[in-house]
């Protein structure tokens, strides 16, 4: 009987030693797969970086789900236009950007800038708010207002620009008061930045429809960078008067630019600086970009 008890004790002791040794091996494995504080891995690749909700960073460089879902409007910044054109003077009136037509190229410019600003946003269908004289399938005009979907549209930071097309038809868009009088660029920043840069090409009237008497009114449907080609209409991304938004405040169609040549003018020179360029009246040939499926 005593021998049986001694053998049982020895067996239990052996199991304890083996359990400790085996446990140390399992502990090494746990150390390698450290769950971290979020319980999903020490690198947070599927936990903490997501923010725990759809509004957090997805951790793959694409920004948050909410940001991607809403981002659907911006004014192209001077920096972006210079980068894509490869010129300090920007594109001028030729917006083809490697595409067959000016409208296709301008849409590509919007898509490219959107993707750079918020990775993943380039998967949306982006449209430049530009009218054209003879770009329809039948050779007739194309109206900018018909190219951009039905809304709503939001800036890079999720602020409402307008709920629908009716909200775009006033002197200033009907959205968030924080941005309506200084429309933001692709980074969600006020585009004014203390310089005279508010001329934004549209080729449109105040209803967002083609405005002009021929191809020259849209720089040959956005394929010409020759100054004398024409004088397309532009809108103002911010009003001329901060205290009176009705003074030079029409965001879709305020006046004609001096010409179609590339050019940047950031100084207040009234009707223009004497050059037949898209920026001659105070700007750089920027465009408005809308996603049709925000």
The name of the CATH topology is Mannose-Binding Protein A, Chain A
| Number of discrete domains | 1
| Share in β-strands | 5-15%
Report the C-alpha radius of gyration, rounded. 29 Å
Note the total helix count.
Answer: 5
Could you give the distance between the termini?
83 Å
CATH class: Alpha Beta
Task: Return the average pLDDT rounded to an integer.
Answer: 82
Would you identify the regions where 5 or more consecutive residues have pLDDT less than 50? 1-61
Major beta-sheet overview: 6 strands, mixed
* Residues in helices, as a percent range: 10-25%
Give the name of the CATH architecture. Answer: Roll
Oligomer: single chain
Number of strands: 8
Structural class assignment: alpha+beta
Shape: globular
CATH level 4 superfamily: Mannose-Binding Protein A, subunit A
What is the N-to-C succession of helices and strands? HHEHHEEEEHEEE
């Amino acid at each position: 009987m005593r021998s049986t008890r001694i053998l049982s004790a020895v067996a239990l002791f052996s199991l304890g030693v083996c359990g400790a040794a085996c446990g140390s091996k399992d502990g090494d494995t746990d150390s390698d797969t450290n769950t971290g504080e979020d319980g999903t891995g020490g690198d947070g690749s599927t936990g903490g970086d997501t923010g725990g909700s759809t509004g957090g960073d997805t951790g793959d460089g694409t920004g948050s789900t909410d940001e991607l879902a809403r981002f659907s409007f911006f004014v192209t910044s001077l920096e972006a236009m210079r980068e894509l054109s490869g010129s300090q003077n920007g594109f001028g009136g030729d917006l083809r950007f490697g595409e067959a037509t000016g409208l296709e190229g301008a849409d590509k410019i919007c898509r490219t800038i959107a993707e750079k600003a918020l990775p993943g946003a380039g998967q949306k269908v982006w449209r430049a708010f530009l009218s054209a004289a003879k770009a329809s399938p039948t050779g007739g005009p194309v109206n900018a207002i018909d190219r951009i979907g039905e809304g709503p549209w939001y800036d890079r930071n999720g602020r409402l620009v307008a709920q629908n097309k009716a909200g775009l038809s006033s002197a200033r868009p009907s959205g968030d008061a924080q941005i309506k009088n200084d429309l933001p660029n692709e980074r969600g920043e006020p585009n004014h930045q203390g310089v005279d840069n508010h001329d934004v090409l549209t080729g449109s009237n105040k209803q967002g429809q083609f405005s002009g008497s021929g191809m020259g009114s849209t720089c040959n449907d956005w394929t010409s960078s020759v100054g004398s080609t024409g004088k397309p209409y532009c809108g103002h991304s911010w009003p001329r008067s901060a205290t009176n938004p009705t003074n030079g405040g029409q965001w879709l169609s305020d006046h004609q630019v001096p010409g179609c040549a590339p050019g940047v003018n950031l100084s207040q020179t009234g009707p223009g600086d004497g050059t037949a360029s898209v920026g001659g009246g105070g700007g750089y040939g920027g465009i408005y970009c809308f996603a049709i499926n925000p």
